[in-house]
Amino acid sequence: MMWQRLADRLRSRAFLAALGLIVGSLGFAAPAAAQYPCPAPGPNDRVVGTHSPGPGLLPYPICVPANNGPAPPPAPARAVDTYASIAWHPDVEDVWLEGNFDGPNGAVPKALEACRRAMGDGCQSIGEWSNSSMAIARDWNGYLHRGWGQDGGIAREAALEACRRDQPLPCEIVGTFGSGRQRAQPDMRRDRKLYGAGAWVEGLDRGQRTQAWIATGLLNENDAANAAIAACQEANPGLTCVYWAISGNGVVQTFMREDGPSALPERDERRALRAMREHCATLGVTCRAQAAYDSRRRGLFVHDFGTGRAQ
Predict the structure, then answer these.
(1) Whole-angstrom Cα distance, residue 6 to residue 284?
(2) Alpha carbon distance 301, 280 (integer Å)
(3) pTM of the model
C-alpha cells in the first residue's frame, strides 16, 4: 500500500514538478532523456535504477520503455572530399595518378612530378577532379583519351565516347581511377611505347600498289614514320612516299581487299584481325589477312602484297 500511496502522490502536478527538478539534478543527459520514474513497473517498463527522493520517502525505481532495444548506431562520419589528378605522356600507354588529397591544387603538381621523373619533358596534366572517377581509353593507334563520371561506369562510358569512333572496333579501357585512390603509375618495361609505321608511294591507284615499307621498334612516332618514308623514297626515286599507319605498342596489320592492298593499326594481332573483318564487312568487300608487324620489335621491312609477307 505504501507504493500505492507514493503513486497517488506522484499524480499530483506539484509533486511531478518537484520530481522533474530532482530527476534533472541526477545528471540524466540527452542520451538518458527517455528515463522516467515508475513506482509500479509494468510489462512495458524496464527498471534501470532507483532514486531516493529524500528523508522520510522510500526509494522508487527509474525505468525506460521495455522495447527500447539496443542503442542506435553512431551517425556516419561526415563525408570527406577527395581530390586526384592524372598526368600522361604521348609515348606511354598508361598514366600517373596522385589522389586521395583532402583539398584542391595538391594533386596536379604531384602527378606531373611523377611523370617527369620517368619521362622528362612532354608530360601533360589532364586536370584535377574530386569525389568522382576518371577513366582512360586507348584507341587503335595507341593514343589515350579520358572520360569523367560520378562513378566508374559513367567514367568508362564517357572515355569510350571521347575516344575515336571511326575505327572498326571500340576503344579499350586502360584503367578507371577514383579520386580516393592514392597512387598509380605505369610499368615502364611494358608501357613505354615502341612505334611502327608503314609507307607507300603516293598517288597510285590501290590496284597498282604492290609493296609497302614498314619500320618498327622506334621510340618516337615521327622517327618511325620518317624511317618508313625514307626507305620507300630510296626504293622509288623521283616519287613521293607517304606514311599510312602508325602503331604505338601494337601491330601494323596488312591485308588485301578485293580492290587492292590495305593496312590498319591495332593493339595486337587478334584485335587487328577482328578490325579487318569489321572494316571489310562495313565496306561490303572480301578481304584476306596478310602479315602483321609488331611495333615493339626493331626492324625495317619491305612488305610484298603479292606474297603477303616481307621480302
Answers:
(1) 99
(2) 25
(3) 0.72
